[in-house]
Design a protein that fits this description.
Blueprint lengths: L7 E4 L1 H5 L9 H14 L3 E6 L4 H13 L4 E7 L2 H11 L5 E8 L2 H8 L3 H18 L3 E6 L6 H13 L4 E6 L6 H14 L7 E6 L6 H10 L4 E4 L13 H10 L15 H12 L20 H9 L26 H10 L7 H17 L5 H9 L1
Helix pairs in contact: 2-3, 2-11, 3-4, 4-6, 6-7, 7-8, 8-9, 12-13, 14-15
The chain binds zinc ion (ZN).
The site of zinc ion has 7 residues, from loops.
Length: about 375
């Protein structure tokens, strides 16, 4: 496993993200998203689940042809036919990866796979080796890892690495784990699996309890060096870990998370908009990093502080994620913000008396409307 502090960003917007109800995209939209992800600097693009449908297969083929930098990956169950089809879809990529998975928790093995634990181990050994004969880059995932018996999980991981897996992903498939638990799981795997130095560990979290980002960061602290995530956190049920949150948490709190990624953070906002448009999933206003209000300051005290020095209320700059600060003017805004906006609009020499009157009128408009626009202000000053 990598000793360094580089974290691989594995984006699954086009697989786990697209899989959620209502998010399906056309081939054209998928190509647009994939190109944006490549420009954003993600290391791996999971382009789809090749055997799931002809449409999925075709889009993985097309994405493989156009992507210049990132590794392109297809998901496959731990079955020969799935793996063959996945390989067919990605074989023309510059850097192809097969991502194969099998359930490992008691509840999944018994009720979903209807197999014994021994036969699951045999299947992992055989099919991971089969995948590795097709390509050098093979990821194996233990579905429902966070609810899997630890002894058995260690055996599965060891078996997959022996068979040639180069990345081992331990997903919190059902969004059940907590940060402390998640970190401990990775530490235990690193301590107990004898061949663990031959693979990179990966974390894949879901947001059912609102902890996907926190859990993923804890996974990194425990030794994971790949994070699976999606733009805007889209994905099954409550969604996946949001790429933009992981990247900006590492960047903003590098004192606590001393890692690095290859993401060009200035491209985050643009990519978020492309994904929102393609998937039809509107980003909530208060979404961290990419929500409409994520950098907006409306209350008077905050706006006054922001005008004097941005660091008073800003932990990262909006420019660092490719957007501008939006000082929203509304009924909570103060006089300093109003004066500042008037100055930006060219009204530079307002007397205190003028401003006093304008401020009263401004509050009246603010009571009626949610946002007071520049147009409203120009009308106000001209009246
Ligand atoms: Zn998932």
């Amino acid at each position: 496993m990598q000793d360094n502090n580089s974290v691989i960003i594995f984006d699954t917007t086009l697989r786990d993200g697209e899989q959620c109800p209502g998010a399906s995209m056309t081939l054209e939209q998928k190509l647009l998203v994939a190109s944006a992800l490549d420009e954003l600097g993600v290391d791996v693009i999971e382009a789809g689940f090749a055997i799931a449908s002809q449409g999925d297969f075709d889009s993985i083929v097309e994405i493989s042809k156009v992507i210049k930098n990132a590794t392109v990956c297809s998901l496959a169950r731990t079955k020969e036919r799935d793996i063959e089809v996945a390989y067919d879809a990605i074989k023309n990529a510059r850097r192809p990866r097969i991502h194969t998975f099998a359930s490992t928790s008691d509840i999944h093995v018994k009720h979903k796979l209807k197999m014994t634990k021994e036969s699951v181990l045999e299947m992992i050994a055989k099919q991971v080796a089969f995948a590795r004969n097709l390509t050098n880059d093979v990821e194996w995932s233990a579905e429902d890892a966070t609810r899997t018996d630890m002894d058995y999980l260690c055996k599965c991981v060891e078996t997959a690495i022996n068979a040639g897996a180069t990345t081992i992903n331990l997903p919190d498939t059902v969004g059940y784990t907590t940060p402390i638990e998640h970190k401990a799981m990775f530490e235990t795997i690193r301590n107990r699996v004898s061949n663990i130095d031959k693979a990179i560990l990966s974390t894949h979290c879901h947001n059912d309890l609102g902890m996907a980002t926190a859990n993923s960061l804890a996974g990194i602290a425990g030794g994971a060096r790949q994070v699976e995530c999606t733009i805007n956190g889209i994905g099954e049920r409550a969604g996946n870990t949001a790429l933009e949150e992981i990247v900006m948490a590492i960047k903003t709190r590098n004192d606590v998370f001393p890692y690095k990624t290859k993401i060009v953070s200035e491209n985050i906002m643009r990519t978020s908009e492309i994904v929102a448009k393609a998937s039809g999933f509107i980003v909530q206003n208060n979404k961290a990093i990419v929500g409409k209000n994520a950098f907006a300051h409306e209350s008077g005290i905050h706006q006054d502080g922001m005008i004097k020095n941005k660091e008073t209320y800003e932990i990262m700059t909006p420019e660092s994620v490719g957007r501008n600060t939006h000082l929203a003017l509304g009924k909570h805004s103060g006089r300093a913000a109003l004066k500042d906006r008037f100055e930006q609009l060219g009204y530079k020499n307002l007397s205190d008396e003028d401003l006093k009157i304008l401020f009263i009128e401004f509050k009246t408009i603010g009571d009626k409307k949610k946002n007071v626009s520049d147009e409203d202000l120009v009308k106000l000053i001209n009246s």
